[in-house]
Amino acid sequence: MAEARCSIVIRAYNEEKHIGRLLSGILQQTVREVQIILVDSGSTDATLAVASRFPVEVVHIRPQEFTFGRSLNLGIAQARADVVVMASAHVYPVYPDWLERLIEPFEDPQIAVAYGKQRGAETTQYSEHQVFRRWFPDQSTRRQAHPFCNNANAAIRRALWEQHAYDELLTGLEDLAWARWAQSQGYGVAYVAEAEVVHVHQETWRGIYNRYRREGMAFKQIYPQEHFRFTDFVRLWVSNVWSDWRAAAAEGLLGREWANIVRFRLMQFWGTYQGYRQSGPLTWQLKQTFYYPNLSEIPNGQTARRDVQPIQYKEGGE
Q1: Residue 233 half-sphere exposure, CB side, CA atoms within 13 Å?
Q2: Per-residue pLDDT reduced to its tens digit, 199-252
């Protein structure tokens, strides 16, 4: 077996609707020498059966032991390549050079983290599309000044992980915390717009609230000096609703989306506000709330314009 150019760690829980599309997309990449590691946290659906049709190594973690950082640490511990790619089970690459572009920045020995563009699916909430556009612009950055990155579509240098593993106690934002550490050691974070995935991220309103609440909790742990006051909640809710309304109006979508915009932004910033106020340990009850939501069926996503032809996925995702 040829030496792997990269190892890919995929975190999954009940992802039978999506995992096949991601694995199929990986096998269609220009980078062929890959090791695929699936970290499954107790799936009760056909996730493992679907994954068994692909060259995947499976690592198990009990639901009670799950955090994002812990599952990544378990997966990376099995990695054989110098560069480890991380992908959520409900993303899939748009282009066949996704991996090639994502690991390219590691030719610079001072790069510790690279992360790629994310776009939503066709039925993603309008405001979630706006979030993706803001977080993941169309221009790459060879070395950015801030530690933001996102492990739904990212890669790290394994040798640095061996020096400093992911924080297993954070409720989220383990990627931000790790990149912050890497920058403190003099290493860089690269953003690669061409390494694009579709992130199938449709949630209930309660799920959106819980996602931002756990990220608020994590942000407060990483930056304990920071505050998110009630006035911040009101200001950001109103300003983002207004911005989204203007964008939706320009696209002729305001009549259809205005109420969803109000509600999404309410869940986003009310969840953040409550997360900052949350104290106490990450209990099993909180883990069930944060990590094991009820998932609804989500359709295929969208692509962006590039000279490279996008991957043509078969009916049903693979």
Answers
A1: 18
A2: 997 789 999 999 999 999 998 888 888 888 999 999 999 999 999 999 999 999
Residue 178 φ/ψ, nearest 5 degrees: -70, -45
Give the torsion sign (CA, 19, 292, 170, 176). Answer: positive
Q: Name the residue among 267, 210, 276 with its Cα closest to residue 237.
A: 267
- In angstroms, the first-to-last Cα distance of the chain is 25
Whether the model clears a pTM of 0.70, i.e. scores above it, the answer is: yes
150, 197 in Cβ contact below 8 A? no
How far CA 232 is from CA of 205, 209, 265, 269, in Å, comes to 21, 16, 13, 9
Both tokens assigned to 130: 């706006």
Contact call for residues 14 and 43 (beta carbons, < 8 A): yes
Say which residue the tokens 């962006």 belong to: 304
The first and second tokens of residue 27, run together, are 């096998």
